[in-house]
């Protein structure tokens, strides 16, 4: 039976509602994921003044929320407490126990001056923050330094080029067999 | 004009599609959030053998992914490295700088034996895990211990009641003015 005008209108009304509802579903489910992915990981695409010399590494957004890989203590003269955290790519690589770390791995070492705990003579706790140091794996971009880019930051600003020239040599000398990464996953 | 039979069918078809689509939207947006809330926070409702004596505190699911509050070092005889992490309620309270911590705050202190770094004579790193210690804020349930329940775990099992009788007295003696919590947020 040929549809009448009112029936055609009803049908296109139903179709329009359905399409609109499906679009809304897609929007509500996909956009939050895309936004969280965009915000959660990766170096901040900030201005060049925030990026490390030589490597162009920046402090990744949200790194303070990243999962802990391990704490550490450094004796005098630095006298620091450290905590190394990693992004999801890093954590998954550590848990899989596989080397090398995949491209996209980001490790951040937070460091503080060690100070005496006011409550316990036997304990030391973090004092002032000293450095935030970042390693980013990109085997093409950083091929000449084992696939890693480095950034050392004090008060959120990158330190000078001379200091950045020292990073890789030390990692190469002492951790080459572990893909240039010192930190082991705390059990 | 009185709607005809086909028009009534079209209208109810359109209505059914709209309602179904709206239900789908609600489902797709609400259920993931509810599931993530249910999974992300709070003590595991496991069996009684996993819960601490006196307080009934359990090791919270997913605590290893929680945000770091601060590392710490403990000298001999314990000779440990520690990392205190907190759930979202804890983190927000720390960032707001307000005491007391609200009900629902959970703090977890992870601890490892300190061992010499193989690469750096000046550094110590985590060896074997020693304890996982949990504080849960519930001002009604734990009114007699400053609002806090305590759990100390070795290899995921709670230690004995005698040890749990010692927890609050020390927190009361040395940290009462800070809502019985020693750990300060690392800057």
UniProtKB/TrEMBL annotation, chains A, B:
<keyword id="KW-1133">Transmembrane helix</keyword>
<dbReference type="InterPro" id="IPR032033">
    <property type="entry name" value="Cytochrome_P460"/>
</dbReference>
<feature type="domain" description="Cytochrome P460">
    <location>
        <begin position="60"/>
        <end position="183"/>
    </location>
</feature>
<protein>
    <recommendedName>
        <fullName>Cytochrome P460 domain-containing protein</fullName>
    </recommendedName>
</protein>
<dbReference type="Pfam" id="PF16694">
    <property type="entry name" value="Cytochrome_P460"/>
</dbReference>
<feature type="transmembrane region" description="Helical">
    <location>
        <begin position="12"/>
        <end position="35"/>
    </location>
</feature>
<keyword id="KW-0812">Transmembrane</keyword>
<dbReference type="InterPro" id="IPR038142">
    <property type="entry name" value="Cytochrome_P460_sp"/>
</dbReference>
<keyword id="KW-0472">Membrane</keyword>
